[in-house]
Amino acid sequence: MMNSNPSTPMNAHAPSSISGGNGSPDSNTPRRNSKRPKYSRFTQQELPACKPILTPKWVISAFMLVTIVFIPIGLTSLIASNDVIEIVDRYDNACITGTKSQKVQYIQNATTDKTCTRTLTVKKRMKQPIYVYYQLDNFYQNHRRYVKSRSDKQLRNRGDENATSTCKPEYEANGMSIVPCGLVAWSLFNDTYAFSTSGNRSLTINKREISWKSDRDEKFGSDVFPKNFQNSSFIGGGTLNPSIPLNQQEDLIVWMRTAALPTFRKLYGKIEQDIEAGEKITVVLENRYNTYSFSGKKKLVLSTTSWLGGKNNFIGIAYLAVGGLCFLLATTFTVIYFVKPRHLGDPNYLSWNRNPGGH
Amino acid sequence: MAKGGGTKAAKLIRSSLYTLANIRVKPSYKKSEARIEEISGYPRVILVNQPATLPDQDSSPPLFCTNYVSTTKYTLFNFLPIALFEQFNRVANFYFLVAAGLTFTDYAPFDWPSQVVPLALVVGFSLAKELYEDLQRHWQDMTANCQKAAVHSPSGDFEQKQWREVCVGDIVKVKKDEFFPADLLLLQSSYEDGISYVETMNLDGETNLKVKRALQDLNFSVPVDDDKATHFQDFRPTIRCENPNSNLYTFTGNLEYDGNIYPLDPAQLLLRDSKLRNTEYVYGVVVFTGNDTKVMQNTTQSPSKRSKIELQMDKIIYLLFGLLIFISIVSASGFAYFVRNLVPLWWYLIPEVPGEDFDINNFLISGLRHLVTALMLYGYLVPISLYVSIEAVKILQARFINNDLQLYDDVTGVPANARTSNLNEQLGQVDTILSDKTGTLTCNQMDFLKCSIAGCPYGKRLSEVELAAAKQINAQLESEAESADGSLTDTASLEAITITDDGNSNNNKKGAIKGFSFQDDRLQKGNWTKEPNADVILLFFRILAVCHTAIPEVSEKTGELTYEAESPDEGAFLVAAREFGFQFIKRTQNSVVVLERLSKDQEPVEKEYTILTLLDFTSKRKRMSVILRDETGQLLMFCKGADTIIFDRLASDGKMYLESTTKNLNDYGEAGLRTLALAYKKLSESEYSEWHEKFHNAKISSGSNREELMEDLSDVMERGLTLVGATAVEDKLQSGVPECIDRLALAGLKIWVLTGDKMETAINIGFSCSLLRQGMKQICIVVSAEMLAEAAKDVIKENILSQITTGLDSIKNKKEPHAAFALIIDGKTLTYALEDDMKFKFLNLAVNCASVICCRVSPKQKALVVRLVKEGTRRTTLGIGDGANDVGMIKEADIGIGISGVEGMQAVMASDFSIAQFRFLERLLIVHGHWCYKRISKMICYFFYKNITLALTLFYFEAETGFSGQMHYDDWYMLLYNVFLTSCPVLALGVLEKDICAEFCLQFPALYQQGPKNLFFDWYRIIGWLANGVYASFVIYLVNLRIFSPESFRKEGQTADMYVIGTAMFTSIIWVVNVQIFLVSHYLTRVQLHTIWGSIVVWYLIVYIYGMMPVQWSAGNIYHQLPEVLGPAYKFYLSTVFVTILCNMPYLIHISYQRCYNPEDHHILQEMKNMKKDVTDRKMWKREQVKATQETEIGLSARVDAKMRLMKGRTTRKYSSLAPNSS
């Protein structure tokens, strides 16, 4: 609805008040003042602020700063990475030959002897501790069905051994709960390695403290023992000694930390002896784990570490590249700055000066 | 999202149904009464003084609604369903609701809290806001409903009852300064003659008092006891009247009592929510209660408007939904592929056991099931908190507008008020302003400036228009002199104008009488008796003093007389009459008392004029008359009205002064004054009584033709008049209006004036506001009255079309480069021009003209013009006005602004923003609008960026897991990301960001065009931001993976598991998006710095605290993660630093390059500000300010430019004699 109400002279509906004389009473002055907004720097949007302006000087300095910081970091990282001695040996193909189905048959046959011997040459002196890893390829430890299939509660607490609802499809065998349940534990990696040098010096592997301390202390119970494990119709990976509590089964603890990518390494143990350059290492391994059905690779990795961890050139190269790029940018900006300088606050760059009348 | 349109349409249909019901369906009255109703013609029958609840009687009265009033949107029971429904009407919210529901199933890639908690927070916030607003309304209702009213009881006493218990037919007593509890029919007042005064401020905002008259012929004994009214005990009349409707100013009905029928009219109706004033008490019958009252019938909800940015944002959300569906389909197909070809080989999953996730025998079903999972997983693409954040930001922005001291009017004490906060950013995008004239551009304060009596012009003071013209010419001469020696620039002269202008108006106002600026010694101080036509002058003054509907009011403090007049013109006339010695002092039911002082030394004489009949002013009649008997017994009719109307009604011997008066009137029109003609007529007793009888019969008759009949009779009476003279009052411009218009024009805004005034007045005001100027070609599209009356519609349209075409041609073929055009069109013509087949031609002409003035337009036409501009140009329109007649326009425009001035609250109630003065529009648009536009657009872009950055890393990772839907982040990270971790900096950005300080915004109006051109929220920018998000997600994902895997990531030889990489990646995201917002901001106050760095610190704290919680609470692999696993690893820090720098590099390069070598205007201005160039280089500063304008043909500056061009073109100088001589 609309009130038809055009403003015409003498408009009867035009609401207004005119007072004659000077009789506009000031009685409501205090009320009026109360509506006055209160002054504060915040409400008037006058808060002090820093207003960084990206002048060419700042831009060039910023890029130079990145260069100056990144190049040394890159170099140090590269050096650290180069100091790391890493030996990678893919053995899944070397230990068995034949077609895929032959390999699968071989690996699934529980009775055959799967021992395999490999010889690795150490080109540079490896200082202890030397970390031993196994690396799997094309193994989807990150698949949702796999990741979900575990019960942290059960691992932690003896009383919760029946808390297996999250462990499908590997939660019970012969009507009893499995401890540890779930696909992750069930598919435990079970290849083993034994090392000796060519000089017949045996290299003992320390398999203690290869997992996180908090895992051992809190997440895997000291009173939880494997039970009914690998008893179901499906046989998965490794078995566990039922007389050792879970918090001492460090292989399991490491395995249970699922990897992010289908290619991953996991710590197998530490060799706490130096190995001299030129020495040959003989590895006697039990090649039991089935990666043949899904064409996964298995690799044995011996590596020292630097302050940055294992051998990784990426960090160094990336830092150097970005540092270099920033140097390039800084130079470019400098060149442009000298070739075609723009004075700060130069009004000629205002849009109305650049294309007069064109707006 | 589509809700606005849908419900609106539904409402329309429902309301029209309701109207139909009112007209057609008979109320549930008893049959006998229905018969009476048919006879009387009035559907509503009220039995007075018979309590409505008389049970078990056959003739029980019809059911009327109770007096309980509820304005709430919800009730206790429907709050949750309705409010929730409204919330989930938004597509995004609905999606999240479905997603949250699905988290309880096995489809969900995460636990239920990560979806339910954010949704609950977001919806809970909105619900709390709705609830709070509705409770406020409810409390207001409750206070209103529980007020006490004195209701007559059968015993004759008055009982105190609550308002809600008052029933139709009750007699109530209302005392001075109390509000009426319902719509009452006035029966008796404390005055003998039944007059009472009411203030209707709550209703229509009018502050003046209105006279209400009781039925004169109903005689009651004057009550003795104050609280007893026994004489009402046997008073049982029947009232028949119209059905409830929303029209405040009409009411018809009959009162049947003792076999007599008395006609009722609006003068007897006391409306709910108005207040009794100046009257001790009144008695009234309740006619309408509760929702039937006029005030309730008038409450309409203003349509909800959405800003263009929000509409565009919806499109982005749809785009993101598209992306979401796309990657979900990719993910689902990938999953299906894996299930079919690869998963059967993965013995470690025991694939032969089908689970809830997949079944290798049926990869299609598995794929489809996974689609549901994926749709939930990538829901993070759509920012759940976006709506809430925007709402919160806008509320805060609105508070800034409300609290801006520079939008506060000291004179009236009214601050600006953002009534709806969801249009803030739209203020920065306005293209066309459609303005009302009276009360908006002008004060609606009338100053009696000149008059013409007996053909002789009086009054020497110049009007503002004349002054402005004189000043312009003066300034032009000055500036020419200055530019001759080249020392001063254009701005200097502009400033000079402004200064002189201020000086003048101050001088004028000092010591002046409000409403009276007349200055002429010939008439003042009693000198008029010496004038040749003294008798005519006497008559002139008497007409001024008697012919009106005003009420004198004695101020309690000063004892002075003030006048409560219905129109400001009348007030000015009465003040003028008083100054001339004819002081109107008293009005009774049927007389007017005037204190006349005929000469200077004579004592004033009190004269009483008996008013016999008063023929009211209506906008249709454009005149009012009184028929009176003076003290000598002579019957006279005084009439005043629009000149054309009066001239048509003059007697052949009454045209003595016609010619000279017409000439004077033309002069006044030229000077921008409002004119009225005054006339009188002598009547004989017989003539009058004969006419009066007819008139009375018409008045009491009922039926549809009553109005018509009365009009015809009035018309008969108001003929054969004798012209006395004419008045000229000045409609003062509001302060700062010309300057404001100038700045707005320089900022590139188009200004249209839509006014109900006549063409001459409108043109005059156009000149005084510099919307028009000399040398501008005026294209007037008018159809003559004769043609309108005689010609067929087709012919008229043909005629208008040809005028439009001619206008367009002349614009096309303009020879001078600076030729400017103005379009002036009147309401009648507009009716045709707005018809479908013509409106776009008309619009085409209008947008090509520098200024457009539509005069004589009805409120409806105002709204139609706004709609035409809005839909035809697809630009943002702003409607500004102050009166009830602007409501349609305000509601229709993209932004409606109400001036909370003298004309009441209706415009304000309908508006989106209210300001006290037109001039505040400049700051509201150019400063607040600009800021809000930039804030909101930056904020929305950033919001999408940060969500894309997060969501895509999920996608990449999922692809690496065989599309199985696994996440590498903990559920809680995801939950906190939108709600907590990244929300504060973006809120701070939306509230506090400023690219340019307020002062510069005003000094460089061209900057405003960034908004209307939508430079900061166009698709390039949006796509750029989305691309930036894609890039960042890519870098974050790849770099972190390469750094952390597969080899050991720390000296102790351990390798990283999925959650270590997840946390490292999430840390990178937090850094990247926070550094990004740091780069985005121009203006970093403490608040922003704290929120940005705070967010980062809080992230580390959360990871730490989360990891330190007892192991059963902390999700598996986060336990002790920061201190034990990630903290000691250097790679963790190296990756964060590297990713942060690399992700922000493209943006940094972009802004560095842009700023260094292709800067935008605000960049340069920031630098200038930084270098204090505005202080050190005044000359350059001034010069740039002048250049920083849009090309415009209106406004003061354009006027000066035009003058300068003219001067340059001229070889000889010609000094004008029209120099200002008033001050």
What report would you give on this structure?
The complex is a heterodimer of chains A (359) and B (1223). In chain A, helix 2 (56-83) runs antiparallel to helix 10 (313-339). The two termini of chain A are 42 Å apart. Helices cover 30% and strands 16% of the residues of chain A. In chain A, a hairpin with a 4-residue loop joins strand 7 and strand 8 (202-203). By secondary structure, chain A is an alpha+beta fold. With 1223 residues, chain B is of the alpha+beta class. Chain B contains 40 helices and 34 strands. Chain B has a nine-stranded mixed beta sheet with strand order 14-33-32-31-15-27-30-29-28, with helices on both faces. A nine-stranded antiparallel beta sheet of chain B has the order 17-16-26-25-24-23-22-21-20, sandwiched between helices. A six-stranded antiparallel beta sheet of chain B has the order 3-2-4-13-5-11, with no helix packed on it. Classes of the chains: A alpha+beta (359), B alpha+beta (1223). Chains A and B meet through helix 1, strand 1, helix 2, strand 4 and helix 5 of A and helix 10, strand 16, strand 19, helix 14 and strand 25 of B.
